Amino acid sequence: MKPIILSALMAIVNCTTLFGQTPNLFAPGAPGADAHWPTAAKNGFGTANSLRSKVWFTLAEGVMTEVYYPTLDVPNVQTLQLVVTQGNQVQTELEDTVHRVEVPDAAALTFRQVNTAKSGAYKITKTYLTDPERNSVLVDVSFETNHADGCKCSIYVYYDPSLNNSGMHDSAWTDGNWLVSADSDKASALTTIEYGFDNAVNGYLGTSDGLTQLRSAGTIARYERADKGNVVQMARVRVPSGLAQSKMRFTLVLSFGRSAGEAITNGAATARKGFAATRAQYEQGWHDYTKTLPRVEPKYQQQFNMSVMVLRALEDKTYRGAMIASPSIPWGGGPNGNEATVSGYHAVWSRDLYQVATAFHAIGDHATANRALDYLFRVQQKSDGSFPQNSSVDGRPIGDGLQMDQVALPLIMAYQFGRTDWKTWLKHIKPAADFIAAKGPATIQDRWEEKPGYSPATIAAEIAGLVCAAHIARMNGAFTSARAYLKSADDWVGNIERWTSTSTGPYQNGRYYLRITANDNPNDGAKIEINSGGGSYDEREIIDAGFLELVRLGIKAPDDPLIVKSLAVVDKLLKVETRAGDAWYRYNHDAYGERLDGKPYDGRSGAGRLWVLLTGERGEYELARGDTAAARKRLDTMLAFANDGLMIPEQVWDRSVTSDSAFRLGSGTGSATPLAWSMAQFIRLTLNLKSGRNLETPAIVMNRYRDWKANERPK
Questions:
Q1: Average of per-residue pLDDT across 31-49
Q2: In this structure, are residues 386 and 432 in contact, taking their beta carbons and an 8 Å threshold?
Q3: β pairing state of 170-175 and 97-102
Q4: Is 566 left (phi over 0), alpha (psi -120 to 50) or beta?
Q5: Which residues make Cβ contacts (< 8 Å) with residue 441, sequence separation at least 6?
Q6: Contact 612, 649 (CB under 8 A)
């Protein structure tokens, strides 16, 4: 069957002719059921390595989930999947097939979903990529049955748009062979370029959408339009009579634009180019980049390449240097997705951007690393020198918390990247360093964005940031500022144990670092309230491994007695052995994760799970200690934590037995996947092992404090 000529398709506007029977005009049941964002556990994420194509896709549970356009903080899709009917049976890919993901090209962000019917009646294979020249996602679909005469079934395309980061304000209609939806200045257009559609229905979720009709009545009443609600579009793939259905192949094109006409125009151009030509162009764009990457041990190379490509794909194409934390909304983001949400991870954190930029710097991609620092300084930084809790990709602040490590980490980046010029010093380094010296060492929020007080991890970043700022100040002749920064840094080094380690705690004979102290007295028994209903505890009972930042940033030696004692407490309280290897909780009694019964975290209650990046941080500590074998073991564990699409998650499951069969010990949860921080940690640990040292440890800090004694001040 030759492809339909797209120009002819666009000219067909008489739906009676195209779809066989006259449809009803307006769908009933407005506005439809609540919208809900899909799982954050993505096993595929892709975009073209091109600035012209401002569209990104995500994959999970056998279907396409959020599609971002025109920036990485605007999701526009909830689900795109196939529905198969056979007799009175109605099956969806999401619910009625067994899913797996393949990576057909190890050097490109091309992903393939293979969905096999639980009944064994058919197999659906879908390959995803985007058009490097425009805002289109292409899906090559193969439908196979075990019977020579086919499965006597119908195949529908089910599309649930959620344009403009909200699910309740869309309108949907049919324009020729296109299913079109729009919300304000965002529009999408969906077609199949081989066979076309029939039996199209534009309805409201749960009331008049095509899938609800099929399940409740076994037939479809067609609706031409649904306005201002949670709309769903569905249409049957039109198979010509006489075509054997034992194996069908067709291509879906989903395009976006500022208007319906622009979306259709983009889609028509992509369709004319076709899947094969687009794929060649898409993969060549990634090949040109991956061939520049360092070579690492063969067992790590594919995951290493994937981690780098994902980080590169997480950079926005309009606001350069803005790299989001994850293309996901953990646990669906709350009760519904009706309105635009800020609960997802598609925002920019200074802390996460530091992790990503240092990974790019380690691989030698200094241009990308410096774009990240430029973004922090030129877009995010406030007039007082501080940085927002996080921001949209255009720099608009989202959170209002003050996290002092996020003020300090850009200063370390500037030193590491050699950004020591006068303008950078005066406009960016000095304001941030002055802010730290005036406001530190306490923070309003720790690195877990929850608690105020004195945090070992935060103070480590502040000390290192001030030392790096002092170096840049001296280079620019600002000796008074340099002396002031070093005085603060030295004072804080001399007091950090007194401020943040207890001598009266219930573990390890009472001597160890705490997660955070409410004030500068870690022995006063102050209460700490765990977020998300985790309970109230004596702060001496709550520990984390944040003190390892003192080693990674060059302030403490890895064999420092208090570091070693504190690690013993961490391993006793926070470590879990999984089949992949050891993993750690953020802190004891953490409540940020699935609830005890395995149901999604709802913002009010949960149970913290194991954080993958902490395994990488332990590996960096062990490398600093000189235990290369132990560090390599941590890298192997991180490798095993990646899912079938090579996405490394934020959290993995911590229990052998659970009421939810979807979770296995050591497998990803409904947390953010892929998490940029996790992927960056894998890259850094891989290259640090290759180099035999932690490349991101600032030498100027380590040299100053290597032989530090509490009663001595460095010169």
A1: 97
A2: yes
A3: unpaired
A4: alpha
A5: 404, 454, 458, 459, 462, 492, 496, 499
A6: yes
Amino acid identity at 715:
K
Contact 175, 257 (CB under 8 A): no
Distance CA 712, CA 641 (A): 44
- How are beta strands 651-652 and 610-611 bridged, if at all? antiparallel
DSSP string for residues in 382-423 = -TTS---S-B-TTS-B------HHHHHHHHHHHHHTT---HH
Query: Hey, what are 96's tokens?
Result: 């009625």
Which structure tokens are listed for 238?
A: 């039109």
Token output for 31? 């506005």
User: What is the gyration radius of the CA atoms in the chain, in angstroms?
Assistant: 27
Pairing of the two strands 223-229 and 24-26: parallel
Q: What is the DSSP string of 286-321?
A: HHHHHTTSPP--HHHHHHHHHHHHHHHHTB-SSSTT
* 363-392 confidence digits (pLDDT tens): 999 999 999 999 999 999 999 999 999 999
pLDDT (tens digit, 9 = 90+) per residue, 662-706?
788 899 999 999 999 999 999 999 999 999 999 999 999 999 998
SS3 533: coil
CB atoms within 10 A of CB 351: 20
Angle between helices 628-641 and 612-625 (to 10 degrees): 170
Domains of the chain by start residue, with CATH: 41-288 (2.70.98.10), 297-326+345-705 (1.50.10.10)
Question: Could you tell me the pTM of the whole model?
Answer: 0.94
Adjacent-strand bridge partners of 406: none
> Tokens 């049955």 identify what position?
145
The DSSP H or E segment spanning 178 is strand 178-183
CB atoms within 10 A of CB 178: 26
With 90 as the cut, is the pLDDT of residue 508 above it?
A: no
